[in-house]
Write a structure and sequence with these properties.
The structure holds two protein chains of two kinds. Chain A contains seven helices and no strands. By secondary structure, chain A is mainly alpha-helical. Chain A starts with a helix and ends in a 5-residue tail after the last helix. The chains are: A mainly alpha, B mainly alpha.
Chain lengths: 141, 63
């Protein structure tokens, strides 16, 4: 095998952003279901703990402020986007819907802040799950 | 009776900036050193600075 061939084959996985493996799929799914879970299964304990703490704290503070958890809907565009954001929280969203957490209407300022907190917690959880996926495929350390 | 946590807009924004900075710092940088620096100097301070600027801008527009 020539040197050129060896270099090309070695460079391919890095250039392609590495392969999709069982671990990468698992990191994505677990990271979505459990905030920081995608990092935990890859033994990134500190990062996972910080991500979990941040997402869970934002979700919990949002609930404490009587924030609303959106349900699946086909009505107002902002409600649809709110649901998409909330759904990003994965397990927290499922738990919240199952146990009927959160306010039913946004009737005062703090409830509005809380609703935004819950939506942002979901979006941050998606970011952390994607980060776990990037670590699993070797795109990030 | 529903007891809701009541916090000011400023406190809500500061808490928001704190947690979002942590997640952004971890997900947007590669090394722990860069992450820590980025959390504080980039994201948190920019969030807080932007909030003060926006607040004063609204005050100026209002008066």
């Amino acid at each position: 095998m020539t040197k050129t061939e060896t270099d090309t084959s070695a460079a391919q996985p890095v250039a392609a952003g590495a392969a999709f493996t069982k671990m990468s799929a698992l990191a994505l799914v677990v990271g979505w279901l459990i905030p920081g879970g995608g990092h935990f299964i890859q033994k990134k304990w500190i990062r996972g703990s910080l991500l979990m703490g941040s997402v869970v704290a934002m979700f919990a503070i949002g609930l404490a402020m009587q924030g609303k958890i959106y349900q699946p809907n086909a009505g107002d565009l902002l409600d649809i986007l709110g649901f998409i954001g909330d759904f990003g929280a994965g397990g927290l969203y499922i738990l919240g819907r199952t146990l009927e957490w959160g306010g039913t209407s946004i009737s005062f300022a703090a409830a509005d802040y809380g609703t935004k907190y819950i939506v942002v917690a979901g979006l941050l959880n998606i970011m952390s799950a994607v980060d776990a996926y990037h670590i699993a495929i070797g795109k990030k350390q | 009776m529903i007891l809701a946590m009541q916090i000011s807009h400023f406190t809500a924004a500061a808490i928001f900036a704190f947690f979002v900075s942590i997640v952004f710092g971890i997900t947007q940088r590669n090394t722990p050193r860069e992450m820590a620096r980025c959390m504080l100097s980039h994201f948190f301070l920019w969030f807080m600075g932007g909030m003060f600027l926006a607040g004063w801008a609204m005050w100026v527009l209002h008066h």
